[in-house]
Amino acid sequence: MITVLVPYLNTEKYITETLEGLLSQTYKDFNVLCIDNCSEDNSRDIVERYAASDSRFRSIEFLHKGKSLALNHAINSCDSKWLAICDADDVWLPTKLEKQVNYI
């Protein structure tokens, strides 16, 4: 199992494309933990819709203390052997996780 960490802050312009890229992965044994760094736009609403429709997605809020601390907080709340970080404005090719899993 892989946990994909997605830290975000005010990324409503990009987060849908990012999450759709995760949904399109050919490797399916993963969870997504989205860490809201106190967004002031509709980012959290978008993420919450994904969490409501796919049990692999989870959203947590983290006080606005920066990306590094948000990631550290998320890492401490994961029990997966493998972690992957996907920034909220990244779009992964559909075979990204599959290729990484095959490599490891």
Characterization of this structure:
This protein has helices at residues 15-23, 43-53, 67-76, 96-103, and strands at 2-8, 30-36, 57-61, 82-85. It is an alpha/beta fold. The radius of gyration is 13 Å and the shape is globular. Strands 3-2-1-4 form a 4-stranded parallel β-sheet, with helices on both faces. The chain is 37% helix and 22% strand. Strand 2 (30-36), helix 2 (43-53) and strand 3 (57-61) form a beta-alpha-beta unit. The chain is built from 4 helices and 4 strands. The model has no long low-confidence stretch (mean pLDDT 94). The two termini are 12 Å apart.
List keywords for this structure.
single chain; 104 residues; alpha/beta; four-stranded parallel beta sheet; 4 helices; 4 strands
Kindly, what is the distance between the CA atoms of the first and last residues, rounded to a whole number of angstroms? Answer: 12 Å
Number of separate strands? 4
Mean pLDDT: 94
Q: Major β-sheet, in short? A: 4 strands, parallel
The portion of residues forming beta strands comes to: 15-25%
Measured as a percent range, the helix fraction is: 25-40%
Radius of gyration: 13 Å
Helices and strands, in order, run as EHEHEHEH
Write the layout of secondary structure elements.
Layout: E1 2-8, H1 15-23, E2 30-36, H2 43-53, E3 57-61, H3 67-76, E4 82-85, H4 96-103
Parallel strand pairs: 1-2, 1-4, 2-3
Q: What's a quick, concise take on this entry?
A:
With 104 residues, this protein is an alpha/beta fold.
